[in-house]
Amino acid sequence: MQEIELKFLVPEYKVDSLMRQAKIKSSNTTQLAAHYYDTVDNILAQSGMALRIRKEGDTWVQTLKSNGDGMASRGEQNNILDEAQVNEAIQADALYPDLSVYEDLGIEKMILSSSEEQVSDKLNRLYITDIERTTRLIRSETGLVEMAYDEGFVIHGEDSQISKPILELEFELIEGDVSFLFEVAKTWAKRYNLCLSTVTKAERGGLMLAGKEHADATKADLKKLTLDKKMSQPKFIRAVIHNCMLQILPNVSAIAAGSTDGNHVHQLRVGIRRLRTALKFFSDFSSQLNPEWGPILKQTFGLLGEYRDHELLQTRTQPMLESKGAPYVDWSSEREAIKIKPIDALRAPDFQITLLELIEFTMSPAKKDKPINPGNAKQQIVKILESLYKKISKASENFASLNIEAQHDVRKRLKSLRYISEFVSPMYKKKKTKAFLQYLEPAQEILGEYNDDIVGQYFYRQKTESDPAAWFAVGYFTAQETHAALECAESLKQVKDAPKFW
User: Fold this and answer.
1) pTM of the full structure
2) DSSP 315
3) N or C: which end of the chain has fewer CB within 10 A?
């Protein structure tokens, strides 16, 4: 069975007002106690699975979940267990999953593959969730959605003193059209300032066991991008946006849950940049793209960039300058003075609604979508790649003489060429795309460092008004500028010689 649900974090200041809408006459409140199992080396979790035994009212249910699309859709297999047998096992502290029901899935083989020990010795109860769930149904002519508000704890399987709180809201499509699920989710997200989260209860348990508050920052994973050479334009743009969202959503989830790790901000910005590139260059591939997505993503990207720039000044630029003999310059006050922190930018309703609409778009049928230009995706992509390549090749001839803004445009085109080449690489021979990208990467790195120097010079020049020690950095970056621009021009000439794969 495939379940389609959306999960949200609920800000504490909105809980009381939300509960007034959740606890109505027709709502139900149930205590859910779930026991989660995996091997010591987490082989199920690494395969995108979660195995639990949960008491739902008076019924014990064993459930195996799989990752699904990584956003809103997950695989789920439920098996009702014999109540007397479960109670007897609990009393003997011997509750254990029945793996025979997964014979077709090869779960036992998977577990055994990590050791020569018997299966009965391999699975451990890693953690327990103790949840009070309040549910209500939301109906319309087009569908039925179950709203579930969960409040409780995930508890260590061997030490009940170790636990983490859970406070989340889920909307699951019970029947009807997927669009109704998103309609309900958007209404509640606006009303209660909800933030999308992809973190499952099983993942929360895994983080607790690892002693971590949040998962590591998620990078782009092109292995999860499935394309074929004859793919239509509407299918292609959905696949690409889906791949971008697989990078964006986990990082959004971490920041919305309180992470202040700069890596989450950095990888989120990379994901948004990849997405904006796709929306810009493949805008003709679909008639269903919302033109309002672009400006909202650009605004969020900019707000995250302001925070990231100030962080890098303190953690990267200043230490580099001190290694050159520069005096100490403190950037902590500027960073603290930023009014809109990353968590605030992501909590903005327009950004959350945009994320929901993008997920909905990837799940919408491509057959009903009509591209502006005829032909399949590959035919159109060749034109896009050729145009970008020619502009970058031309810029290599006079890059050093361009003004700062024009140089920045060249850098953005180079990034776009790289992202688009990566997006379409499954349609071409791996060796050829890899060879082409190897020419791009050094140039992108050199232009990136050049841009960092320009940004650094701008901030340090401003800083001289309050701290004369910043003049060393201004002088250093000014001295570097001409040489660095020429170095960028040389790197672009190498791109001009790159063996095209299209």
Assistant:
1) 0.93
2) I
3) N
